[in-house]
Every structure is written in structure tokens, then in C-alpha cells.
Amino acid sequence: MWRCSFYPRPEQTLEEAQSDEAVEQQLQSVVPRQERYRVLHKRSYRIHQRVADSYRRGRMLLAGDAAHLNSPSGGMGMNGGLHDAFNLTEKLIRVLGGADDRLLDLYVRQRRPIAIEHVIAQADRNRRRMRETDPERRRSELRDLQRTAGDPELARRYLLNSAMITGLRQAAAVS
Ligand SMILES: Cc1cc2nc3c(=O)[nH]c(=O)nc-3n(C[C@H](O)[C@H](O)[C@H](O)COP(=O)(O)OP(=O)(O)OC[C@H]3O[C@@H](n4cnc5c(N)ncnc54)[C@H](O)[C@@H]3O)c2cc1C
Questions:
Q1: d(Cα 114, Cα 68) in Å, to the nearest integer?
Q2: Could you give the CA distance from residue 135 to residue 132 in angstroms, rounded to a whole number?
Q3: Nearest atom (ligand 1) to Cα of 63
Q4: SS (H, E, C) 136-149
Q5: C-alpha of residue 65 to centroid of ligand 1, in Å
């Protein structure tokens, strides 16, 4: 079973793009085959790229998609939200135990820059790479990825970034 993402063609409405025939054509254009594809589920989603101006107003706090929205390319949205939740929960417990509630501002200082500098930026890079149609630029992107994969130090840095560990370490360093 595969999950496929397609952009509607410029001349198509969303409804047309989701018709059985249009979906079949898109799938056949990727992997042509004799029989029709069996599509179990389809739905549309809009790609956003934004971060709330603040994650805190008094007793109200934002985390996850309520705080930041990005392209799903790279699988960082939910993971970023989980990191928010872990960070915030630890501070909420301390505030409920009597700590100064300015501790909650530390959550904002630690997590908001990560959404901007890591999650949104990386998701946007991934999305642009996937949408590139110029064959030469696609080859160049692929060569860059191969160079990264072939160099242990570069590969390690790339994995720390894409696994969002760099972001966690950066947040932990903010006081
Ligand atoms: C196609 C696609 C693929 C994705 N793939 C990945 C992936 O591979 N990896 C990854 O990390 N992320 C991925 N994401 C992103 C991920 O789905 C979201 O980041 C994540 O679901 C956000 O979780 P959340 O709890 O912050 O928000 P939501 O999942 O939006 O949860 C908010 C909840 O609040 C409820 N709600 C809203 N208003 C009210 C109200 N007034 N009262 C009570 N309840 C309310 C909603 O019904 C909803 O259940 C993908 C997203 C898309 C669209």
C-alpha cells in the first residue's frame, strides 16, 4: 500500500483533480500498468507555512499545529508538535508546583525559533526539491544528496537535522 501526493494541474479544480479518472491518470503517469489502481482513500489538504507571532498570552499557550504549520514534506509537523508538548509539559508541571510562571516564556524562547529556523525552513527546502522540474537542477540536487550520503560527517549532520535532534539541542541551550 502506498501513499501518493499530487498537486492539481493548473487547469483543474480541486474536485476535478480528485475524480476517479484524474487520480487514475496521475497514478498511471508515475507507474504505468495494465490494470487500474485500487484507491482506498483520497483527500485534499492545503499547504501552509506560518508561525504564530507568540506562543503565549497569559494563561493561553500554543503548541503543535496551532503554533506552526508547514509543508508535510519531511514529516516534521507532528514531530515538532510533540517536541513542543514535551518541553511545555515539563514547565507546566513546575509552575503548577509553585515555580514562577515566567518559566512559560522560556518555552516560547526555546521552541518558537526552532519552528522558524528548522521545521519551516527544512520542510520548505524538501518541498522545493520535490517540485523542481528542471532536469539539470534535479541532477544537481541528487548529486548533493549523494555527496552528503557518501561523507560520514556530512551524513551525520544531515541526519541530526532531519531527525530534529539539532533543534532539540539548540532549544535546550536557550535560557
Ligand atoms: C498529508 C499530511 C501528511 C503528514 N505527514 C506527517 C508526517 O509524516 N510526520 C509528521 O511529523 N507530521 C506529518 N503531518 C503533520 C501532522 O499531521 C500535524 O502536524 C499533526 O497532526 C498536528 O497535531 P496537533 O495535535 O497539533 O493538531 P491537530 O491534529 O489538528 O489536532 C487538533 C485537534 O483539536 C480539535 N479541535 C479543534 N478545535 C477544537 C475546539 N474548539 N474544541 C475542541 N477540539 C478542537 C481538532 O478536531 C483536532 O482533533 C502531515 C500532515 C499532512 C496534512
A1: 10
A2: 8
A3: 26
A4: HHHHHHHHHHHHHH
A5: 6
For helices 152-162 and 135-150, what crossing angle results, to 10°?
110
User: What atom of ligand 1 comes closest to residue 79's alpha carbon?
Assistant: 11
Ligand 1 atom with minimal separation from the 77 CA: 19
163 lines ligand 1 (CB under 6 A): no
The residues near 22 (Cβ < 8 Å, ≥ 6 apart) are 12, 16
Strand runs (DSSP E) across the chain, as ranges?
50-51, 56-57, 60-61, 68-69
Express each pLDDT in 90-132 by its tens digit. 999 999 999 999 999 999 999 999 999 988 888 888 888 888 9
Domains of the chain as residue ranges with CATH: 1-45 (no CATH), 50-172 (3.50.50.60)
Write the pLDDT tens digit of every residue in 62-75.
Answer: 999 999 999 888 88
Supply the pTM of this predicted model.
0.87
C-alpha 150 to ligand 1 mean position (Å): 35
- What is the distance in A from the centroid of ligand 1 to the CA of 75? 12
Whole-number Å distance between alpha carbons of 64 and 79? 9
Ligand 1 binding pocket includes 72 (Cβ within 6 Å): yes
